[in-house]
Write a structure and sequence with these properties.
Chain lengths: ~600, ~600
């Protein structure tokens, strides 16, 4: 395994001082460019940069005294030098890629630092999963920091996850290298209500002097919002409108504005800076969740910065929001996020600050990408066998496992049906009349079956229910082991036979997504690591994911972002009606409910 | 001893959340004011504040749900609520006051946080002195953080201090509560030349995740300046012009702009923000050194902010430079420096943001001053006896100890005379013809005698030399145990008898400043603690210091700030000619020199 190790500033200081003073040659000098200084918010024409030990050894008007016979000279040819881009909050698993393959996909886009919350794998593999993600993160050629997941399960009592995270796990993780703080504290009702466990987790992070991530997913900005802020989260990325952004920054939280594959929260919030004139230092750009297709086709943080500029933000301010603001937030402003002495030498050459073409990327002093092509290896961890064997069904599933028996003698019933709404995360709790046939409720009238198949403990349990809104027609089934947040398996279909086939297929390949139509598998995305990630390159995964979308369409689904809807139907923290391994969950009341209404 | 203890945010979180949510009453609510939000740089009219456990428990438009029957309601009556002011870098000893009495003097001025470098006492009492200062700091009703002194002695090999500080001392101090980082790294030639000891000290601080203070006292902004920045200092307060400020901030250092009793560096540097438009987040206001008279008559950080505004700075930006910028710099932005959830409830009521009258001061949730009067006790440490017995002369000094014998047979000699220049810290190395009388060189033609009396190890050693520029006339002597940085005793006089009397007098009272004229003591400032500080109130010390200035005038001295000149004459890091316990020091060459020139 290629291991890229970077000495600390302190370990490199003697060399850095010697280079700056002209007593020792730099490894690399970049000259002939225009340097973007995110400390002062200036463009410094002609400023040069010397690099040694992977860090900036001189940043100033003339680095000629740092040049030796072996120094690699890079001519910027009038282009801008900007700091490498930082993603302030994101989940690598959303790309369906391992940290290595995610890094390989985003390095050519100019991302050199990511703050990642491996929340999904924590639900499957617990603290060990976090550690594995962290281990692979630490061997990458860019800086990937890990936020310790805070909420597994996300809804205690309403679901059973593979593993649970508690304050003692958080305390342990805070002592690990590479752990930067706590991942988004999603249990905001817990914090507001003074949950001892949630406050204990936050306390462990504060005690360690690290950063507590927030997640306040409510439009209410009254006392409950203030109570959440008092609990300690230092940032939030759940705001969706200008008022949300202003409210958070006024509380001394940093507002993380998202542009992900399905999140569009920058345009609606950046007016707090561009129109209301708030001090921009409190604002950070991030992606939260990006699919591999977005990474391959549209970019990563370069896409977000470009978008912020298109929304009217001054390019230098937008760059601050993706560099120094982020670094300062995580206590890393002396380590990265600017082109300044001693920092990690993460720098991008670009010929335009608005369009932001990423022409050359240097990370920790090495050229890691050039003209959109990666120039280094992103080493893979040797993932342990059990991390690839997480789809434990306990038996071969058959059609009978997906039967929904009608109450004895009933023919017409009122069912509580999950209603999917296009482009919205919340579902509707629908009441629908359904007809029994031979004592069973099957797919009918645009209503499909949905099943939650337990896959962590091999119990063989299947919870069956009904869903409306995908538009599936004919005989089909789709199964996915990406099933937020507990990541059991969600199977949706119109055919019980194919639902069983799809589920068994994922058991066979170790997880992923499969789509069946008329008895044949028509799409498969293998995600063997924890049932969540592939260790194949992003473009391969993106191609398979595209095929998956086409297959859903072939089954009659015309919903935008339908795969995401599928994978969120077990997310029992977002209203109104969801499914878990424990049954149907009324998320307006945070309690289990029944599939059929009692007859009045 | 009254001990004021504040729980951590984590320890208080359950209460804070409960107050914000309306489940528990606040201790205090402030309403009817205009809140200055330094995160967003806004004035929020009508915003209210609730306080519990000494921290902000609610900051928002309406705190009425936080009010219980016991809640202390403070009506702001339309005044501004601003965060308590922070002094980013300063030496308590410069006020000739203990931390307690310094705090008592500045609390009514609105200072609620100080970052203090007990560099002076470190030279006298070593690490124990730092600890004693820290101990008294930690029991004050405001937040006083300690920077571990970095350079004692300031000039190794050219002076002998009471104690020396090394990397192992720094490493030890980093583990102490209340230590925020390293005090100004004054040995900038050492850093630039890669001194192992200096880089090791910095490394210990970086390893501990704390802040390294800088001190680059040179106008050269070329490679040497860059080399210093590469060494790791995160701030600097030695800039004196706009170019200095811009250069530092561009290197990712924070520029600390001083307004002390004798430092006037704000007006000349703040144009970097007000005219050149640099991002103000990199700028911090501080005092560095304030005499007790300044504190009593002109104020402290309120004086600095007021001055910054008078220099054309937007009042909200000036306040940021004395609150959140400082807090962020020291990694404390979640702990203080703004009126925001969970932070220490440090808040000032003022009716004007430009004139900045300090009408009420609340620190950690308590009213600590009202209308310029302190409202709390600032507890004194029980200083150990040996900290009050630091003037160790080893013998009773007599006139003979101050004799300067001329080389045998010489009558006219060329002497290297220290030339004091009004309003400048650097001295001139003068060459003066002097006449011997009875084989001795005495005061003559505006030249006085100067002696460095060893006082740390009771060696009885006296180094004698000559000084010009004070203007002393008639028979007089002045002695001071404040003698930067080694703090031996400097005696200047025209009468050897009185020089001996003055020195012995300080031995008797345990240190301070004494002035003798015509055989009588005409002024005395007792500074019994380490020979540097009084534990009497600031107004008493200021009155005695004023008397001291008058006494110097009575002896013929018309120099501005003459006492400071006196006390800096052993500071063997500032050119050109100084005195130390080892002899006369040529600070242009950093080597010892002779009092008399060899005849050509």
């Amino acid at each position: 395994m290629e291991r890229h190790s970077l000495k600390t500033w302190a370990e490199s200081a003697a060399t850095l001082v010697a280079v700056a003073a002209g007593r020792a040659p730099a490894d690399m000098v970049i000259r002939g460019g225009k340097l973007v200084n995110v400390h002062t918010r200036e463009v410094l024409d002609g400023w040069q940069v010397a690099i040694a030990e992977g860090r900036f050894a001189y940043v100033g008007p003339d680095a000629s005294h740092c040049v030796g016979p072996e120094t690699n000279i890079i001519e910027a040819n009038g282009r801008y030098l900007i700091p490498g881009l930082c993603d302030g909050h994101m989940h690598i698993e959303s790309g369906m890629l391992t940290p290595a393959e995610f890094a390989a996909a985003v390095i050519p886009q100019g991302t050199t630092t990511m703050f990642t919350d491996p929340h999904e794998i924590a639900n499957v593999l617990g603290l060990e999963g976090v550690k594995l993600m962290r281990d692979e993160a630490l061997i990458q050629p860019i800086s990937i920091y890990t936020q310790m997941p805070s909420c597994a399960p996300s809804a205690p009592g309403l679901e059973t996850t593979g593993y649970e995270i508690g304050p003692e796990d958080v305390a342990e993780a805070m002592s690990w290298p590479g752990i930067i703080g706590l991942g988004e504290m999603m249990n905001f009702p817990g914090v507001i209500n003074g949950s001892q466990q949630m406050l204990a987790e936050i306390a462990e992070v504060q005690k360690a002097g690290k950063t507590v991530g927030g997640h306040y997913a409510s439009p209410d900005l009254g006392p409950e919002f203030h109570a959440y802020a008092e609990g300690g989260p230092a940032d939030d990325h759940e705001g969706t409108c200008e008022a949300d952004a202003i409210a958070r920054v006024r509380q001394g939280m940093r507002m993380m504005m998202r542009l992900g594959s399905a999140w569009y929260d920058v345009e609606s919030q950046i007016t707090a800076v561009t129109e209301k004139g708030l001090d921009p230092r409190g604002f950070i750009l991030c992606t939260d969740d990006c699919h591999s297709g977005t990474l391959v086709n549209d970019g990563h943080m370069n896409r977000v910065v470009r978008h912020a500029v298109a929304c009217g933000c001054d390019p230098l301010i937008a760059l601050q929001m993706a560099t120094i603001n982020t670094a300062t937030h995580f206590g890393l402003e002396r380590e990265l996020g600017s082109i300044a002495p001693g920092r990690r030498a993460d720098v991008i050459l670009t010929s335009d600050l608005s369009e932001l073409p990423i022409e050359k990327v240097i990370a920790q002093g090495r050229v890691v990408a050039e003209g959109g092509e990666i120039a280094v290896t992103c080493p893979h961890l040797d993932w342990p066998t059990h991390s690839r064997e997480t789809v434990k069904l306990g038996k071969t599933l058959v059609a009978k496992d997906f039967e929904i028996p009608a109450p004895k003698g009933a023919e017409t019933l009122t069912a509580n049906v999950i209603g999917v709404v296009e482009n919205q995360a919340p579902t509707k709790a629908l009441k629908r009349q359904v007809q029994a046939e031979q004592g069973l409720i099957s797919a009918q009238n645009g209503i499909a079956q949905i099943a939650l198949v337990e896959r962590h403990r091999a119990t063989g349990d299947v919870v069956n229910a009904l869903v409306e809104g995908f538009g599936y027609q004919g005989e089909m089934a789709m199964a996915s082991t990406v099933a937020h947040d507990s990541h059991h398996m969600i199977v949706i279909g119109t055919s019980r036979e194919m639902m069983a086939q799809a589920a068994d297929r994922l058991g066979e390949v170790g997880g992923g997504v499969t789509i069946w139509k008329d008895g044949e598998e028509i799409a498969l995305v293998e995600l063997p690591i924890a049932g969540l990630m592939s260790d194949r390159p992003a473009h391969e995964v993106a191609a398979k994911a595209e095929q998956m979308v086409k297959a859903m369409e072939a089954c009659g689904c015309t919903l935008n972002n339908a795969y995401m809807q599928h994978s969120l139907l077990a997310l029992v923290v977002i209203p109104e009606l969801r499914i878990s391994d424990l049954g149907l969950v009324d998320v307006t009341k945070f309690e289990l409910t029944t599939l059929f209404e009692e007859p009045a």
